[in-house]
Specification:
Elements: H1 2-41, E1 49-55, E2 64-72, H2 76-92, E3 100-108, E4 117-125
Antiparallel strand pairs: 1-2, 2-4, 3-4
Length: 127
């Protein structure tokens, strides 16, 4: 009788691990993969200062959507050229795109005391 109870409890624990553990593990692996893909294809601009970060899942640039605003003293044309050259280099090396989609833009900073540019980075993965 005692063996049956122990076996029954063990089976319940294994079932709970299967039901709740597998999806959690899959989400963690997917988040790490998304983060690495997005960081490869859309790096943070060198020397830029973070103005705001908005994301809707575990962390920025992982699963879900992320919108980042950066500030740099460089002009928008320099920023655009950096991202274009970076992406062209990845394409020429046949770097896999992965699961994430990315986009960027740069605009003249409307705050005269800072000058330079605001950089808008958008990424989305699986969500």
């Amino acid at each position: 009788m005692r063996r049956r109870i122990v076996r029954w409890i063990r089976n319940i624990v294994l079932l709970l691990l299967l039901v709740f553990g597998c999806p959690g593990s899959i989400a963690i692996v997917a988040d790490i993969t998304c983060y690495n893909n997005i960081s490869t294809w859309l790096p943070l601009y060198p020397g830029a200062e973070s103005v705001s970060i908005d994301y809707n899942f575990i962390r920025p640039r992982g699963l879900g959507s992320t919108f980042i605003v950066l500030r740099t003293p460089d002009n928008p044309e320099t920023v655009e050229a950096f991202y274009q050259q970076h992406m062209e280099a990845l394409v020429s090396r046949n770097t896999p795109r992965g699961m994430g989609t990315t986009d960027f833009s740069a605009a003249k900073n409307p705050e005269p005391e800072y000058g330079g540019s605001l950089i808008f980075l958008y990424s989305r993965c699986i969500a």
